[in-house]
Write a structure and sequence with these properties.
Helix content is 26%, strand content 21%. It is α+β, with helices and mostly antiparallel strands. It has two domains: 301 residues, 3-Layer(aba) Sandwich (D-Maltodextrin-Binding Protein, domain 2), CATH 3.40.190.10; 226 residues, Dipeptide-binding Protein, Domain 3 (Dipeptide-binding Protein, domain 3, Roll). The strands form six sheets. Strands 14, 15, 16, 17, 18, 19 and 20 form a seven-stranded mixed sheet that branches. Strands 1-13-12-11 form a four-stranded mixed sheet, with helices on one face. Strand 11 and strand 12 form a beta hairpin. The longest helix has 16 residues. It is globular, with a radius of gyration of 24 Å.
Length: 588
């Protein structure tokens, strides 16, 4: 998943026995820290989880969502076929599906669906809900087929299109020619109210790990057809998850309240009845709110890390966090200078990742010289494969390309996240030091995340696209295929925004895609990473680091914060609040 803060795992035996939390490490609101988040209900206060986020939700449409904020919201509102266990995310457990099986050839999966989960419409004015009808297998048939609809413009349409039988045909149609009747192209069928069959293009060994994904969730067809793009508006949307939407002021606040109609056995063990997320655009403001007991969880601003680590008062509240996202600079392959592999190798080997992490992140990152982080099926041992920082190799490669000693090197445009221009400046300085390319050859522009995605999309004409850009990829499901294929970083198919031509790497990815033997798949992914980042590798991207940070959690908040939310959204119905302690602190 593309990340903005992108959205070590002890249960997955990840390195350094890192403890993980679900939240990003920075949030925001205003330049002043003199802010109090007042309870929305003073009497009969529901048990409320107060938190913040840096960015607003883009959409709560399961088939359209791309960013982590939206996916997190969808997790509260819609149930999936299966779920990633909040206490052990690598373990896929039942949710709406109670049973599942696959055919002998591995091409057809059959799911048995619960018949006791209602679609609920919530009226935020009266604080009352209306049960519309029960969720059926036909809702899953419609939702999964809708995931293939190119009119939604979702990046994840291509992800499922590469696996589901018939989905690619629909997903690659001209948008102007698509109608709902074309959904029949997709091989997904509800046999009755409680049975849905899903056909695959090939016996994908990783398909079951995809079934908790937001894009494959049931949605109510009649409401979508009646209201169109407005079907997700407050007071109109019908949901079936542990929470309903009670308030959504874009750019300000979103409020969820407990869905009173969801069966109790589907609900997590937490006691949260309401969740209030306030949009706050400054990490220091959220930290101040945390210190004032107005929010229950906070990131630690970079400027405060050392003092927090040394303050005994925080030791019982501190969690080290990661989203298992690898951050990188991408190279555009279809125009100079990065159409030449020697230049890509030279640039990548010019950057000292450890120094980068210290300078740009104040040590809050794990240097990465290949793509797939620990915790994914098929991941190689961390930094066992790859060149990494090697000035001598970098100079040799530069001299083998069309710009020896950087002579004649063209000006290049580099695009980064907002407030991440220093990343590009560090890279430019490293390239100047190692290769002799002056920093004035680099034009650096910082863009809002959605704009960055737009200008780097392969559908944008090459002449309008930057030569380099920064992004991060975090897991949608715990399998190497999600990284080497879905991410479009090492595969010439799918999105392939890098415009890299097909090579032996792609043959290996396709072999791993259809291979059923887990050990053979691991060997194939090892070779993929070696061919991508070894001395003779393509170096289609420059991996930099896996982000880590710190979060602070109030003593009255509990739940599987170390493991929840690594794949898909977090489970707020697994959070518990000691309300007496919380309210005493807030009022104090």
């Amino acid at each position: 998943m593309f990340k903005k803060s992108l959205r070590a795992l002890p249960v997955l035996a990840v390195m350094m026995a890192m403890v993980v939390a679900l939240v990003p490490t920075g949030f925001a609101f205003a330049s002043s820290t003199d802010i109090t988040l007042v309870s929305l209900m003073q009497e009969g206060e529901p048990i409320t989880y107060y938190n913040t986020n840096t960015a607003q939700i883009s959409t709560i449409d399961p088939q359209a969502a791309t960013d982590s904020e939206s996916i997190d919201a969808i997790e509260q509102l819609f149930l999936a076929l299966t779920d990633a266990d909040p206490e052990n995310p690598g373990n896929i457990v039942a949710e709406m599906a109670t049973e599942w099986s696959t055919s002998e050839d591995g091409l057809t999966w059959t799911f048995t669906i619960r018949d006791d989960v209602p679609w609920v419409r919530w009226d935020p004015v009266t604080d009352e809900g209306e049960v519309l009808r029960m969720v059926t297998a036909y809702d899953f048939e419609y939702g999964i087929k809708r995931a293939c609809d190119p009119r939604l413009g979702s990046l994840y349409g291509a992800v499922v299109a590469a696996v589901l039988d018939g989905c690619e045909v629909l997903n690659t149609m001209d948008v102007a020619d698509v109608s709902d009747e074309d959904y029949d192209l997709v091989n997904v069928t509800a046999l009755d109210d409680t049975t849905v069959q899903v056909g695959l293009q090939f016996p994908a060994g990783f398909f079951f790990s995809m079934t908790p994904m937001w894009i494959l969730r049931a949605v109510p067809q009649e409401i979508i057809q009646e209201y169109g793009d407005d079907w997700t508006e407050l007071g109109t949307i019908a949901v079936n998850g542990p929470f309903v939407l009670d308030e959504w002021v874009r750019g300000v606040r979103v409020v969820f309240v407990k869905n009173p109609y969801m069966p109790d056995d589907l609900r997590g063990p937490g006691n949260v009845e309401r969740m209030i997320t306030t949009i706050v655009q400054d990490a220091g403001t959220t930290f101040a709110l945390y210190q004032d007991d107005q929010v229950d969880i906070s990131g630690v601003p970079a400027a405060e890390v050392q003092s927090v680590l040394e303050d005994e008062a925080y030791q019982d509240q501190l969690l080290q966090t990661t989203n298992l996202a690898t951050y990188y600079f991408a190279f555009l392959h279809d125009k100079p200078p990065f159409d030449d592999v020697h230049v890509r190798r030279a640039f990548s080997a010019s950057v000292d990742r450890e120094a980068f992490v210290q300078e740009a992140l104040q040590g809050r990152g794990v240097p990465m010289i290949h793509l797939i982080p620990p915790g994914m099926f098929g991941a190689v041992p961390i930094n066992e494969v790859g060149v990494g920082y090697n000035p001598e190799y970098a100079k040799e490669q530069m001299d083998m390309g069309p710009y020896p000693n950087c002579e004649g090197f063209p000006p290049i445009e580099v695009v980064t996240y907002q407030n991440r221009g220093d990343w590009a400046e560090i890279v430019a300085a490293s390239v100047e030091e190692v290769l002799g390319c002056p920093t004035n050859l680099f034009t650096i522009e910082q863009l809002e995340f959605s704009v960055l995605l737009e200008v780097t999309n392969k559908r944008t004409p090459s002449e309008d696209r930057p030569h380099m850009w920064t992004l991060g990829w975090g897991p949608d499901y715990p399998d190497a295929h999600n990284w080497v294929f879905d991410a479009g970083l090492l595969s010439c198919e799918g999105e392939n925004n890098l415009m890299r031509p097909c090579t032996e790497i792609d043959d290996l990815i396709m072999q791993a895609k259809v291979e059923s033997d887990p050990e053979v798949r691991k060997e194939l992914y090892y070779r993929v990473e070696e061919l991508a980042f070894g001395p003779e590798g393509e170096h289609s991207i420059m991996p930099l680091f896996m982000g880590i940070g710190y979060s602070l959690v109030k003593p009255w908040l509990s739940g599987p914060l170390e493991t929840d939310g690594l794949f898909g959204g977090a489970h707020y119905d697994w959070r518990s609040i000691d309300q007496e302690a919380q309210l005493a602190a807030r009022e104090g």
